[in-house]
Amino acid sequence: MVILLWHAGRTNVKTITPTKFEVIDDPQDAFAVWKGAAVRGRTLYLFDRYLEIQPVSHAEFRFRPEEFSGDLTVKSLCSAILRDRYKIRLRHRECGIDMLNEILESRYFYAAWKEKKSLSLSSRAKRLIRASRGYPAGFRTLSENRKKVVIQLNRLIIEETYPLICPKSVKYRAEEDNYLYLAIYEKIINKIYHIIPDDAWPEVARNLSVYPYVYFGERFIRMAIHEGVPLIIMRFSDFDPVRDPVLVSVASDCWSDVEMERIFSLLSGGNIRSDLITVSGRQEDGLAGKSVPDA
Amino acid sequence: MLRKRVLWIAGIFIFAFVLRFWGIAYKWHYTGDQETIVRASANFLRNGSFSPDDWVHPPMKYYLAEASIKLFGHNPYGWRMKNVIFGSLSVLMVYLLGKELFRDDKTAFAASVFLLFEPVHIAYSRSILGEVPSIFFFLGAVYVVVVYLKGRLRSPIIAGFCLGVALAIKWYYIVPCIVLLSYFLAARRSAGNWSLETVLHTFGVFVLIPLGIYILQYYPWMSRGYSLGDLFNLQIDAYRILQAQTLGDFSSEFMRHSPSSPLQWFVMPVVYGSQDGVAGIFGNFVILMLNPMVSLFTFPAAVYALYRSHKDKDASLFIILVLFLCTYGQFAIVSRPLLLYSVIPVLPFAYLLTAYGLTAFCSRFRNPSRAYKWAMIVVIIWGAYLYPLVAGGYVPVLAYRPLFLLGRVTLL
Predict the structure, then answer these.
(1) Helix B315-333 with B347-362: angle, nearest 10 deg
(2) What does the domain layout of chain B look like in residue ranges?
(3) In this complex, do A131 and B30 lie within 8 Å of one another by their Cβ atoms?
(4) Is B240 on the interface with A (CB under 8 A)?
């Protein structure tokens, strides 16, 4: 049993060779880099003053004009829906984004759609149908979460009914406040070491001291966040790298030149074994051309 | 004799099942925590992710929920049937355990009837929460140990599996497990059955098997790249978060205002709820309550049991008393708020004691059998009165107003 569990833990952690070094515009762009590299189950060293991990997707299921491009047009989608003559009342008479979004807010759209169509919906749509079954009739009286469920359901129904003329909504959008949560959700990250500038330590310790479940060690602060992922916060001067290959993300705006040199020397000297390094901020040009060994 | 026993057992289970099954699909949509746990079950088994549920509780409940959905379908039956079945089996388990521990059938029958009609047990036997299956497995472990010590089983290994599943649903079985182990060791020692083989066997059943089940349940999570060391740290982190929980952490406003102190459970009537629907003079309700006719006699019965177990040197009575004290005691001393469903693992032992007290009380009458019969008739009539209210059926509101006055029930 122990061997089975050890094997389960180890075999999913694969490293990239050669080591990749990416310069990015914003910290949240690291998520796209990690996803593109298909890394999973990794420890992250985050060199940043700030850390925000909101469990939000920033997914937007309402139709937006910028979604329609090329062969996808608002008019063709709108016309196709109107041709099917669903029995729902709409305030907007003209084909356009407003009409499409009004359909998304209709509590009766699914029932009207069922009368006309016999398509088998995806499991995601079925789940939303089940979830919304007990909701009261009016859209405006629903809570914000329930409104999102109704909008997402109607959007999925339209996407699946008109797959060739309806743009696909995205499950999530990475922003600065949620890209780490998305990385956890996508199983990219299992553990986070948040290395902060020494002068940020008193403020961080003060802010976290109000939470009784936060553990204050001698040279670190430890807590568990979403999905039980351990978050260990350390001062840069106390930083002690682990041996396993890790992801590294550096927000260079937070660090002085001397500190950036030290970060880089830890990487190039092999003290931090990393196969995927992302750097954002003002100093990224200075790091271009430098090399780090393979993890 | 055997046929009569089988009929009794079947009858108790069927009756308990009918009471818990009736109307479970009346609300053909998610209620309570069902959506969260159903989604988390699929997510955990496929991806090792606890989302959208909290990660602080062990994941065994996800396996049980998925098994129920596979058997009964992705619908209200699938979401709720596992608790209907385990809840009904718990009632049966109380009867069987009572029969093994006490010399007469009356105590066993009375205890099973108390649990059969217990409102909070009925309510949560129609939900998805893990408390109901967990107590079934723990009762199963106790029953197997008792039967094994009486020499009717070759090995108590099934108890190890039952303990493992119970612990893998809820941590609060750790202390009762230790109590059960102590009872087992004391019984083996007093029987002169104390060898290295016994010790190793006991260690395997009570430690290795439960620990193995507990750790193995995290296999999907560990497949995300976590080690055994990470698993250990996860338990420490989860414990810290659970100890820091407040009422504000519960997402439902209804539950946030519900009774949250275990000190109230057996000393005063606990009745809480709100009206859900209106139809003329009738209404249906969401009710959380303990049966005051039974629960208020638990402490006096426990005191009496303590006296008798000491006087008669009755180990069977003593173990039930200790199991009641340790399951209830750990809730009574913990500082975080505990909602009423946390009483479920205490109830079987509480009601075995109450039933013992009842039969002892009836034995003082000139005609003990008749006294017992009348007591059971009153309990059953009272239980039948409570049942439609607790099961969410439409009831005449006026007929239940006196009961509502005992607690806090909001009317429309």
Answers:
(1) 130
(2) 2-410
(3) yes
(4) yes
pTM for this predicted structure: 0.90
Where do runs of H (alpha helix) occur along chain A? 2-10, 29-37, 74-83, 97-104, 109-116, 123-132, 144-161, 179-185, 201-208, 257-268, 284-287
pLDDT along chain A (295 residues), means of 10: 64 74 92 93 93 86 92 93 92 91 94 93 91 87 89 96 94 90 92 94 93 91 92 91 86 89 86 90 59 66
Amino acid at B123: A
Helix, strand, coil percentages for chain A (3-state, nearest 5) = 40, 15, 45
Query: How far is B76 from B365, CA to CA, in rounded Å?
Result: 48
Q: For residues B205 and B145, is the Cβ–Cβ distance under 8 A?
A: no
CB pair distance less than 8 Å for B227 and A13: no
Tokens representing A132? 């919304």
- Is residue B130 within 8 A of residue B175, CB to CB? The reply is no
- Joined together, the tokens standing for residue A160 give 């699946």
Minimal Cβ distance to A230: which of B224, B233, B243: B233
| B230/A1 CB distance under 8 A | no
CB contact under 8 A, B224 and A187: yes
Give tens-digit pLDDT for B265-286. Answer: 999 999 999 998 888 999 999 9
Chain A contact probe: residue of B36, B219, B222, B252 with most A CBs at under 10 A: B222
Residue B31 with chain A: CB contacts under 8 Å = 134
- Rounded Cα–Cα distance for residues A35 and A126 (Å): 27
Q: Which member of B55, B219, B243 has the closest CB to residue A8?
A: B219
- Sequence-distant (6+) residues with CB within 8 A of B1 are none
Residue of A nearest to B219 (CA): A5
